[in-house]
């Protein structure tokens, strides 16, 4: 299979303009003839639905929650990047492009990333027009703060609730179209299969999570906006409903899954407190603007932080990376925190934490300034831990956060199944092997507001889509497959709960496909996951039945998919014999312990093709070509 990214010709700076100038269009009158199915209502899904409905398309939107406002996008805290250069500190579209390419350790497409940087400024204007309450300077201009991996301040924010405010903006635009009758909203629906007719995506099968009813929906194109798969690790910063099922069922229908091993570990999360904890809580990377990361210099030092004098504190990021200090990218900060705890310098009861200290910032700027910038985050930390971060340092530790892998898409955001477009975190994205902070919100809104209106129109205008409805045999086949899978799960009636299996899988992945990986461990975990999956289909217990609200059944289907995904992640990590970004193979590191890439052999996107149950997937490569940036060893020193 040849993976053609469909990159437009011309200079990097002109490719998106060339595309817009030459793509095929659908006239306003004809837009009303097309039905678009959008799965997911986070930033990517909500912005796409609002924009396409505003253009005249008929949109059906499917939400796994009771309201789009519950989408996990609300959990994003720190901000959204744009190259506005309001602080006049030297930022440009090129610098945002370069920082993103470098931050991803040169494992992303130049053309996609440059387009993202170009569109970034339009996103801010759009959101301000919607009334998003970005922080402002005293004179009224929008404020910016710094984030990891950049030496300029380009991150726009709304205290520590930027994702929530951006989602409310998209949701309000979406609600307008619901009221106008251009969006049909289906809440509490989970997509369980994709319907492919004549090689094109033409419909979906969903389960009504309240009644258990299996429903069919047909359309002219399907937009998948269902987020990432971090919950494969069981413990992550993602909401419990976040899952891979919709994307995974598309993978089984022929969409390639790209770079599944590229997962991001966020350095500033509240540490694990107990064995039966169900999720982890993110503390915004924005806190690293003013918080200083440190550990005791002496291993095993269990004194309270206020009893450890300045001379006995190790500000390891500031000392190791003087140019960026505490604002190194997330993968670098996470690995260094792990190194400190591995060396016995960790703090807290478990020893699996480092300090994030605001003492100096409060003394220098005053408590009122810190309250203005971060108070909601400080309150959240205090409610969870019982500790006041105005008085004692926060304790933080890396946790699984974002996934850079996902379904492969070309420049049009279209997968290897024509008509199936994938937006936001659900695609393999623009972030390479490591996402820079404040770029997830940027990508989701760029895809939904500004890219998909052009690329979807081009697809519809260049394809002959015969009318189909849900009586087509392909819908019958897909619904039967969904029902058979549900019936099989319920019939097992074993001895172990879904959560027990999920917890076992998560621990295997964290230990062997987490912050560091090595050959022997990856080979071992592939076999261990295969054995766990076999046991799952023999011994999982799901109470009740499928014809009602059944959370156990919901999670059971998702964990079954996670078990298959986990094995693919390990295969992908084993195959990629280099270190890059968040993928750290212990065999491939520099003398200073940094990730060591192999550009000659691994400068490609690994895209995996499903071959059937218990069959090894086939890996295809999209070679990455760098014509505008020089491949260098990443350095933040």
UniProtKB/TrEMBL annotation:
Keywords: Cell membrane, Electron transport, FAD, Flavoprotein, Membrane, Oxidoreductase, Transport. Its EC number is 1.3.5.1. One of its GO terms (cellular component) is plasma membrane. Residues 36-441 form the FAD-dependent oxidoreductase 2 FAD-binding domain. Residues 502-636 form the Fumarate reductase/succinate dehydrogenase flavoprotein-like C-terminal domain. SUPFAM superfamilies: FAD/NAD(P)-binding domain, Succinate dehydrogenase/fumarate reductase flavoprotein C-terminal domain, Succinate dehydrogenase/fumarate reductase flavoprotein, catalytic domain. The keyword Electron transport applies. The active site is at 330 (proton acceptor). It catalyses: a quinone + succinate = fumarate + a quinol. GO terms for biological process: anaerobic respiration. It comes from Stanieria cyanosphaera (strain ATCC 29371 / PCC 7437). It is an enzyme of class 1 (oxidoreductase). PANTHER family: SUCCINATE DEHYDROGENASE 2 FLAVOPROTEIN SUBUNIT, SUCCINATE DEHYDROGENASE FLAVOPROTEIN SUBUNIT. It is found in: Cell membrane. It is a peripheral membrane protein. GO terms for molecular function: electron transfer activity; flavin adenine dinucleotide binding; steroid dehydrogenase activity, acting on the CH-CH group of donors; succinate dehydrogenase (quinone) activity. This is succinate dehydrogenase. Its cofactor is FAD. Belongs to the FAD-dependent oxidoreductase 2 family. FRD/SDH subfamily. InterPro entries: FAD-dep_OxRdtase_2_FAD-bd, FAD/NAD-bd_sf, Fum_R/Succ_DH_flav-like_C_sf, Fum_Rdtase/Succ_DH_flav-like_C, SdhA/FrdA/AprA, Succ_DH/Fum_Rdt_flav_su, Succ_DH/fumarate_Rdtase_cat_sf. The keyword Amino-acid biosynthesis does not apply.
């Amino acid at each position: 299979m040849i993976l053609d990214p469909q990159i437009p010709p011309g200079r990097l700076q002109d490719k998106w303009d060339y595309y817009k100038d030459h793509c095929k269009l659908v006239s306003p009158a004809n837009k009303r003839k097309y039905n678009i199915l959008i799965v997911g209502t986070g930033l990517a899904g909500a912005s796409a639905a609002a924009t396409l409905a505003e253009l005249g398309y008929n949109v059906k939107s499917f939400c796994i929650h009771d309201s789009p406002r519950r989408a996990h996008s609300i959990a994003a805290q720190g901000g959204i990047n744009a190259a506005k250069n309001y602080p006049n500190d030297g930022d440009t579209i090129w610098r945002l492009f370069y920082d993103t390419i470098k931050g991803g350790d040169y494992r992303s497409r130049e053309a996609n990333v440059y387009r993202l940087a170009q569109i970034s400024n339009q996103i801010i204007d759009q959101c301000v027009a919607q009334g998003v309450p970005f922080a402002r300077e005293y004179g009224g201009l929008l404020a910016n703060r710094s984030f990891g991996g950049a030496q300029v301040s380009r991150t726009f924010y709304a205290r520590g609730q930027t994702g929530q405010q951006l989602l409310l903006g998209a949701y309000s635009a979406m609600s307008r179209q619901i009221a106008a009758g251009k969006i049909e909203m289906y809440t509490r629906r989970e997509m369980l299969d994709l319907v492919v007719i004549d090689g094109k995506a033409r419909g979906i099968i969903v389960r009504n999570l309240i009644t258990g009813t299996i429903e069919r929906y047909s359309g002219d194109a399907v937009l998948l906006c269902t987020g990432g798969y971090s919950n494969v690790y069981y413990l992550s910063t993602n909401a419990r409903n976040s899952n891979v099922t919709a994307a995974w069922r598309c993978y089984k229908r022929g969409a390639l899954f790209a770079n599944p091993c590229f997962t991001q570990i966020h350095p500033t999360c509240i540490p694990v407190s107990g064995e039966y904890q169900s999720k982890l809580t993110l503390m915004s990377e924005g806190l690293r603007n003013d918080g200083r990361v440190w550990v005791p210099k002496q291993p095993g030092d269990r004194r309270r932080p206020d009893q450890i004098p300045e001379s006995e504190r190790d500000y390891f990021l500031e000392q190791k990376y003087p140019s960026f200090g505490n604002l190194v990218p997330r993968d670098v900060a996470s690995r260094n925190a792990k190194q400190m705890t591995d060396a016995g310098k960790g703090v807290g009861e478990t020893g699996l934490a480092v300090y994030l200290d605001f003492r100096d910032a409060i003394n220098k700027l005053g408590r009122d300034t810190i309250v203005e910038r971060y108070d909601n985050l400080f309150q959240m930390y205090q409610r969870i831990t019982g500790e006041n971060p105005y008085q004692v340092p926060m304790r933080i530790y890396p946790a699984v956060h974002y996934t850079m892998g996902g379904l492969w898409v070309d420049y049009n955001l279209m997968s290897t199944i024509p008509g199936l477009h994938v937006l936001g975190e659900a695609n393999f994205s623009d972030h390479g092997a490591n996402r820079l902070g404040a770029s997830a919100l940027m990508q989701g809104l760029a895809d939904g507001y500004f890219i998909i209106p052009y690329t979807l129109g081009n697809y519809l205008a260049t394809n002959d889509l015969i009318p189909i409805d849900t009586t087509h045999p392909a819908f019958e086949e897909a619904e039967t497959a969904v029902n058979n899978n549900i019936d099989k799960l319920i019939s097992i009636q074993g001895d172990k709960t879904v959560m027990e299996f999920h917890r076992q899988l998560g621990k295997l992945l964290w230990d062997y496909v987490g912050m560091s990986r090595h050959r022997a461990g990856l080979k071992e975990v592939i076999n261990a996951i295969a054995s766990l999956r076999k046991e799952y289909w023999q011994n999982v217990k799901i109470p009740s039945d499928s014809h009602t609200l059944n959370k156990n059944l919901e999670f059971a289907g998702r964990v079954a998919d996670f078990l298959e995904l986990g094995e693919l992640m390990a295969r992908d990590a084993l195959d990629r014999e280099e270190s890059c970004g968040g993928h750290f193979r212990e065999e491939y590191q520099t003398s200073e312990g940094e990730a060591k890439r192999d550009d000659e052999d691994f400068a490609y996107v690994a895209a995996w093709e499903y071959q059937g149950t218990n069959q090894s997937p086939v890996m295809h490569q999209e070679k990455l070509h760098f014509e505008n940036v020089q491949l260098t060893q990443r350095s933040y020193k």
